[in-house]
Design brief:
It is built from 5 helices and no strands. It has about 130 residues and is mainly alpha-helical. The chain folds into 2 domains: about 55 residues; about 40 residues, no CATH class.
């Protein structure tokens, strides 16, 4: 045992890590947005499942149809602004990405934000002799 009260495999860290309030708040905000997106993806999955059961076949809401139904003006404005920048960017690139299901897109982005908001584990320190 050493003088600090811990043995060679003490659980005490030699240098405590301090995190700033800004970093902590940013992690909290990122995790909150991630949880909201994950909940939105789960709700979209339930809605699609209910519609599929009622219709007797698989019904999936794509990002394209969902955005056009909920925000029709925003969708048209976004299409016009992206086509002004590059027509190639809108037609093959974004239209392909917007065929993804809403539940997968929201759930994937939400899970990614939650994973990014976790603090990295500090390595274990072992005493060498």
């Amino acid at each position: 045992m050493d003088r600090r009260g811990g043995g060679a495999y003490s659980s005490r860290r030699p240098f405590p890590t301090r995190h700033s309030n800004e970093e902590t708040m940013l992690r909290l905000l990122t995790r909150l947005i991630g949880l909201l997106l994950l909940a939105g993806g789960f709700i979209a999955l339930i809605v699609d499942g209910t519609r599929s059961i009622a219709a007797g076949r698989l019904m999936v809401t794509s990002i394209n149809r969902g955005t056009a139904a909920v925000f029709p003006g925003l969708y048209q404005a976004m299409q016009a602004s992206v086509e002004n920048v590059s027509a190639y960017l809108w037609d093959p690139v974004l239209t392909t990405l917007m065929t993804a299901p809403v539940s997968v897109a929201f759930g994937g982005v939400g899970a990614l934000l939650i994973l990014l908001s976790h603090r990295r584990q500090t390595p274990l320190y072992y005493a060498r002799r």
